[in-house]
Write a structure and sequence with these properties.
about 30% strand, Immunoglobulin-like, about 20% helix, alpha+beta, Spore Coat Polysaccharide Biosynthesis Protein SpsA, Chain A, 5-stranded antiparallel β-sheet
Length: about 600
């Protein structure tokens, strides 16, 4: 807040402390005394959610506009002030700005459809897919609309953002949109979120409650259809049926009962489910659901696992190659798939060709070089369009000192990365790496000396992978063996060097891996107290805990594990804080804390 490049006399920053236990309120009071634009308030007791603090903030605010900032997130110091000026100068009812989500793996733009152009005087409800971005990040609301219509956040375990947006947007008649970065969402592994306390099954019931509430709202029919479309497609297909949790569930009856309730509520309210499902992939899922539950389960399994590599090309469009039991379903095409075709000498100049396989209605908008793992850095490039291919001057495919992909923007805001190879399908073999994106790595300037400070120099007993990398047969890293995944713990027996003197670690199986500390960090397993650090075959839950899809416990819990539950274990992986997690034979994760788990064998 202090670093925002804006006249602080024009803004107020209101901090609501929800009775935190980390002394943050004492720190906030110091800032309150130092800066006139900062106000601090503390609740009498912890409210258990964001609704009450946000409502107090709306009440205490004096400005014409309000925005909401979650703990640990941050506003862009340059982009946000520009955004405020744009919205205020046009007296828009609501503003939409560019948001970035930061994780340990990458930095990505989110909700592109809400910030793909610089524009004003937009009709908010007419923005395509706008009800898909329901959270506060990147939004500015005219405060009078909230006050005049008595709109507040409902105190809920989950979904208060969604309901607030559904109630507010229909009342907004003008909107501004910017491509400026305005909001940064913190999803680093060290950051914990209340969302993690709600598992998918609980969420489905809360989403049903929201659906019931929405159907009782007095909303213009066209807007109601857009809201219901979002609820059906996102909350009950994309994030409920089209999930690993559904796919791996041995008893899917709960999923079917919940979806039946959705169908019943919507049809009883006079709406047709088929009118609400606009995405082809979701249409196929709903068709399968209506036909046969076995067909649905086969389709979900295919889309989650085999669809990435099972494709074919027909009439300049790429389609998914269904397995035999799904071939009666209508074909499912991909909107846009760009394939790199190489460098050609054309009219005395070198060009790189990218062939585009797309639907006839898909419109190409732009081409950009985009930094690998960090979408904040892009470089637009010019191109020529001829016979279903893009031609880019070879000299323009250059991004100084940056490793990059090539990104295609289509249909205004949709994006896809250029692939290195076309699809290949066979019942008898498979083509390795056929789904890889084209990646360009910049040359180093000159023969630089190896920075030994970047490498481990003493042989550790074990290291943990900080990111995904390869292991090789020899120190010069010529012949790849396999991947080492982030979080994997590797036993080291000694160190070696490449011909150029680069340090390498030699693993217990005789393979070679990097010693670069950006990729590995030493770990002393003997010093980790209270946790299981040697991989067991099976464990028993001795205190109720949760099962997760990811090692960092950032995604929703899959389910709660009751005391006495026995689980088979395949491995131990580590978080970026080097906390061990047990990996089950089904690919899920649970705590390795001995206060919750005991080893059976």
């Amino acid at each position: 807040m202090i670093d925002l490049k804006i006249d602080k006399t024009l803004i107020e920053a209101i901090f609501i402390d929800d009775v935190s236990t980390d002394k943050s309120y004492e720190l906030l009071k110091q800032y309150n005394e130092k800066y006139d634009f900062i106000q601090t308030y503390q609740l009498d007791e912890n409210s258990g959610g964001p609704a009450i603090p946000r409502n107090l903030g709306i009440k205490k605010a004096q400005g014409d506009y309000v925005t909401f900032l979650d703990a640990d997130d941050w506003l862009d110091t340059e982009g946000f002030p520009k955004f405020v000026e744009q919205v205020n100068s046009h007296q828009s009812d609501i503003g939409f700005g560019q948001c970035y989500k930061h994780t340990n793996e990458n930095i990505k733009k989110i909700a592109r459809f809400a910030s793909y152009k610089q524009d004003d005087n937009l009709v908010p409800s007419d923005i395509f897919k706008i009800f898909r971005a329901v959270g506060p990040p990147g939004k500015i609301y005219k405060r009078s609309i909230l006050l005049d219509h008595h709109i507040t956040f409902k105190h809920m375990k989950y979904g208060e953002d969604k309901l607030f947006f559904f109630e507010t947007l229909p009342l907004c008649h003008s909107a501004s949109m910017t491509i400026e970065p305005v909001y940064h969402v913190n999803r680093y592994e060290l950051n914990d979120s209340l969302v993690n306390d709600t598992n998918m099954l609980e969420k489905s019931q809360l989403n049903l409650n929201i659906l019931e509430h929405v159907l009782k709202m007095d909303i213009e029919n066209g807007i109601m259809i857009k809201i219901l479309s979002r609820i059906v497609e996102i909350d009950f297909i994309s994030r409920f049926l089209l999930t690993k949790t559904f796919n791996k569930s041995k008893d899917k009856s709960f999923f079917y009962k919940q979806f039946d309730k959705v169908e019943s509520l919507i049809t009883n309210a006079g709406y047709n489910m088929n009118d609400l499902i606009i995405t082809d992939k979701f249409k196929r899922i709903y068709d399968a659901y209506q036909q046969n539950k076995n067909i649905l389960e086969s389709l979900i399994n295919f889309l989650l696992n085999d669809a990435k590599v099972s494709k074919y090309i027909k009439e300049n469009t790429m389609y998914y190659m269904y397995p035999e039991d799904l071939k009666h379903l209508p074909e499912l095409a991909l909107d846009c798939v760009p394939i790199f075709r190489g460098t050609y000498y054309i009219k005395d100049e070198l060009y790189d060709e990218i062939e585009i396989f797309k639907l006839a209605e898909t419109e190409i908008n732009s081409v950009e070089l985009i930094k690998i793992h960090d979408e904040r850095y892009i470089k637009p490039v010019k191109y020529e369009w001829t016979n279903q291919s893009l031609y880019i001057k070879h000299k323009d495919i250059f991004f100084k000192n940056t490793d990059f992909n090539i990104s295609i923007t289509y249909n205004d805001f949709e994006k896809c990365l250029v692939k290195a190879t076309p699809p290949h399908y066979s019942d008898y073999n498979y083509l390795k790496r056929q789904n890889l994106s084209l990646a360009f790595h910049s040359y180093k300037d000159g023969d630089e000396d190896i920075n030994m400070k970047q490498y481990l120099t003493d042989t550790p007993k074990h290291v943990v992978a900080l990111q995904k990398f390869k292991k090789y047969e020899e120190a010069n890293f010529i012949n790849e063996i396999s991947d080492i995944n982030k979080g994997q713990c590797i036993r080291i027996i000694h160190m070696d060097k490449s011909d150029k003197g680069t340090p390498r670690l030699v693993t217990e199986d005789g393979s070679y891996i990097t010693a670069n500390q950006d990729f590995v960090t030493p770990i002393n397993l003997d010093s980790i107290e209270g946790y299981i650090t040697n991989t067991p075959k099976s464990v028993e839950v001795i205190k109720k805990c949760k099962l997760y899809e990811d090692v960092g416990f950032k995604k929703d819990p899959v389910k709660t594990l009751e005391k006495g539950t026995k689980i088979d274990i395949i491995d131990i992986e580590f978080t970026s804080k080097l906390t061990p997690r047990l990996k089950t034979t089904d690919g899920y994760y649970l705590t390795a804390n001995q206060g919750f788990i005991k080893v059976l064998k």
